[in-house]
Amino acid sequence: MAEQFDVNAPTLGRFVMSNTRDTELVILMNAIATSCKLITSAVNRAGVAQLYGLAGEVNSTGDDQKKLDVMSNDMMINALVNSGVCSVLVSEENEEPIIVPKALQGKYCVAFDPLDGSSNIDCNVSVGTIFSVYEATGDGNVEDLLRSGAHCVCAGYCVYSSAVELVFTFRGGSVHGFCLDPTIGEFVHTRPKMMMPADGGKRIYSCNEGNAVHWDQPIKDAVDAFKNSVGGKPYTARYVGSMVADIHRTLLYGGIYLYPADAKSPKGKLRCLYEGIPMAMIIEQAGGIASTGMFEGKIQRVLELTPDDIHCKCPIIMGGPRDVQVVYDEYKKAGIETPPL
Questions:
Q1: pLDDT score for 285
Q2: CB neighbours of 142 closer than 8 A, spacing ≥ 6?
Q3: Does pTM surpass 0.90?
Q4: How many Cβ atoms sit within 10 Å of the Cβ of residue 45?
């Protein structure tokens, strides 16, 4: 019987409690996990429940909202507000921050993208949820979230695909992966201490080359180097267009993911607070590099950025040292100072 059933399943809640002894953090992570289970159900039933298509609204950054965007956002908000451990929420789908009623407030502030990559949902491509968690410094207000990644206490994402995987890390800790076991309805610890491949892994570059005409010259030259046998063998191009899917692949297989600033989007395209910072924390704590590339006159670490608005944007270059070094080398050739890896 024990060969077929795990009688000692290492569940998410048990993992968080044994590693932190923080009951409020356990409650928070369980609330996030519940949201992800609800979103999983909605994504899996999107076709038969006629959840494809637009909701007829736009979100905080002007993107058209899909029906699943709205539903996923409501699921996240309801679970977090009623957890009793949050004071402030920021969602990509809401222009203003959500202040939790006093009677339900707790010590955590959470920023999230409830359904990243939702433009792909109608054609059944992988989507995901991204979140970052900060601790309130007082009664809890939006200023608690407008801090650099050095203050982020937990970052994670959930990818909805052939399996549903929740990947997260606590500040200063290892990266861990949990797979949703549908037979028991729990996230089970399946990827302990995740690390990017030490040798750089697969030779993959991932970017939207449709924007290449707008890139600065070092980025163009770096991508050309990837395509033209840098280090001996040409790289393979893989770009899903869903950040969660592209970062998850980069974390597991290696390679590099780029969404740089360019002439069209000088501040980048991805949101700093609930895309850039949480993914940077995961990549760095898994042994990778999370850089902005050239941004506001210099090359910076994403985790050192301080958001000046809840929906501000930042450029992203994330991957292993082997591949990020190729990008840095091109900046050096252009006379631009680069930080050591």
A1: 98
A2: 88, 90, 97, 310
A3: yes
A4: 11
Q: Which residues, including other chains, have CB under 8 Å from residue 81's CB and lie 6 or more apart?
A: 89, 98, 100, 101, 104
Task: List residues with catalytic annotation.
Answer: 63, 69, 92-93, 113, 115-116, 275
Backbone angles phi, psi at 265, to 5 degrees: -130, 80
pLDDT in tens, 5-51: 788 889 999 999 999 999 999 999 999 999 999 999 999 886 655 56
Task: Identify which has the larger pLDDT, 84 or 341.
Answer: 84
Q: Give the tokens for residue 38.
A: 């609800």
pLDDT > 70 fraction of the chain, expressed in percent and rounded: 93
Query: Across the strands, what pairs with 274?
Result: none
Rounded Cα distance, 270 and 40, in Å: 23
Q: Tokens for 131, please give them.
A: 């979140």
d(CA 269, CA 214): 13
Could you tell me which residues are beta bridge partners of residue 258? 317
- Helices (DSSP H) in the chain: which residue ranges? 12-20, 23-44, 67-81, 217-227, 243-253, 277-285, 321-333
The edge-to-edge listing of strands for the beta sheet with 127-135 is 98-99, 86-91, 108-116, 127-135, 152-160, 164-170, 175-181, 186-194
pLDDT of residue 93: 93
Residue 190 to residues 57, 141, 246, Cα–Cα distance (Å): 38, 36, 20
